[in-house]
Design a protein that fits this description.
binds S-adenosylmethionine, about 300 residues, alpha/beta, Rossmann fold, 6 strands
C-alpha cells in the first residue's frame, strides 16, 4: 500500500476522500455513542474501573479523533474492542499489553489511553524501519515491500505523547525475530498488526507462551482467511505448542462492530467495509471433533446419522 492507497484505505473511513468518505464519516460519528454504549456496557467491564457514561464517551471520542488525526491503518472501533477486553480483566490480573506493528502510532496512542485507565504497561515492538525483507515461502510477503510502512520511533513517540499517555509505553526497536525472544513479561492482551505470515509466526512463537490464562490475541489481517487459518491449524498448534488450536472470532470479516461488510477481501467504502478486528483468547478452542466415518468404523456401521435433528 502506498501513502495514497492508505488515504483511500477503506479500513480507515476517515481517509476516504469522496462522497463515500462523507457518508462514512457521518455514519462513523453518528453511531459513535451507540458503539461506545454497546461495546463498553458496564456489565462487560470489571467493576474495578468504575467508568462513568461520560468517561466512556470521552474515551470513545478520543479514540475516534486520534484515528483521524494520526495516519492509522486500523479503525478506532477495533481499538474500542480491545479496550473492552483490557477493561474486562480485574486490575489485579497480571499482564502487560503488547502491540506488535505500530506504524505511526495511532493505535498505540489509543491503547495507551486504555492502559492508563487499567494501570498496565504497553510494550510496543516494531522495526520502526517498516516491513522486513520477504521471507521465502510467505505468500503474503511482497519482495518489493521491504521498508514499506516505515515510521521513525521519534515520530511514533511524538504522536503518542500528543494524543495518549506516552509514560505508559515502552518502545522496543528491531525486527521481531531479534527482539521478541527476549520478551519476559506476562501478557494480558496483544495486538498483532504485522501484515506478513512470517511476522505473525514470529509473534505467536515468542509471545503466546507469555499470554496469561485468559489473555487475548487480536489481529488486524482478519480479511485473509489463509492468515486466519493459523488459529485453526491443528498441525501448527500440535507442532509448536503440543496443543489444539484456539480458533479466531471474526475470521474473514471481523468481529461485528457496526459495519456492513460481508467479505471477501476489502470493502467498498462508506459503512460497507470491515473497520473491525479479530481475536482469540488463550482458553478458547477451534477444534473440529466430529468424524462420523471414524465413529462408524469403531462401531461397525456406515456412518449415516440414525437420529434426525
Ligand atoms: C500495517 S502496519 C501497523 C499499523 C498500525 N497498527 C496502525 O494501526 O496504524 C505494520 C507494521 O508492522 C511492522 N512490522 C511488520 N513485520 C515486522 C517485523 N518482522 N519486525 C518488526 N516490525 C515489523 C512494520 O514496521 C509496520 O510498522
Amino acid at each position: 500500500m502506498g501513502e495514497e492507497d492508505l488515504r483511500r484505505n477503506p479500513f480507515n473511513p476517515s481517509k476516504i476522500h469522496s462522497w463515500r468518505g462523507f457518508i462514512s464519516d457521518a455514519y462513523d460519528l453518528l453511531t459513535l455513542p451507540a458503539a461506545v454504549y454497546f461495546v463498553l456496557r458496564s456489565e462487560r467491564l470489571h467493576p474495578d474501573y468504575q467508568l462513568s457514561a461520560f468517561a466512556k464517551l470521552r474515551l470513545g471520542w478520543r479514540m475516534y479523533w486520534n484515528a483521524r488525526k494520526v495516519f492509522t491503518a486500523t479503525s478506532w472501533r477495533a481499538h474500542l474492542a480491545m479496550a473492552q477486553k483490557i477493561l474486562s480483566a480485574p486490575r489485579a490480573t497480571p499482564g502487560v499489553v503488547v502491540e506488535c506493528g505500530c506504524f505511526r502510532g495511532g493505535a498505540t496512542a489509543n491503547l495507551s489511553l486504555v492502559c492508563e485507565i487499567a494501570g498496565r504497561e504497553l510494550i510496543v515492538y516494531d522495526s520502526f524501519e517498516g516491513l522486513p525483507p520477504a521471507a521465502e515461502g510467505d505468500p503474503l510477503a511482497n519482495p518489493a515491500g521491504e521498508g514499506f510502512l516505515a515510521a521513525a520511533l521519534e515520530q511514533v513517540r511524538d504522536h503518542v505523547a500528543r494524543n495518549g499517555h506516552v509514560a505508559r509505553c515502552r518502545f522496543v526497536k528491531g525486527f521481531f525475530s531479534d527482539t521478541l525472544p527476549s520478551h519476559s513479561e506476562p501478557i494480558a492482551l496483544m495486538f498483532l498488526d504485522v501484515d506478513y505470515m512470517a511476522s505473525l509466526h514470529d509473534c505467536i512463537q515468542n509471545l503466546w507462551p507469555h499470554l496469561v490464562e485468559k489473555g487475548y490475541v487480536f489481529i488486524d489481517e482478519y480479511v485473509y482467511t489463509d492468515y486466519c487459518a493459523l488459529f485453526y491449524s491443528e498441525k501448527y498448534w500440535r507442532k509448536y505448542f503440543d496443543a489444539t488450536p484456539p480458533g479466531l472470532i471474526g475470521a474473514g470479516s471481523g468481529a461485528p462492530l457496526g459495519a456492513y461488510y460481508l467479505g471477501p477481501f476489502a470493502g467498498l467504502g462508506a459503512a460497507d467495509n470491515p473497520r473491525s478486528i479479530a481475536y482469540t483468547r488463550k482458553d478458547l478452542s477451534g477444534l473440529w471433533t466430529y468424524y462420523p466415518d471414524e465413529i462408524a468404523a469403531e462401531q461397525g456401521g456406515d456412518g449415516a446419522p440414525t437420529t434426525p435433528l
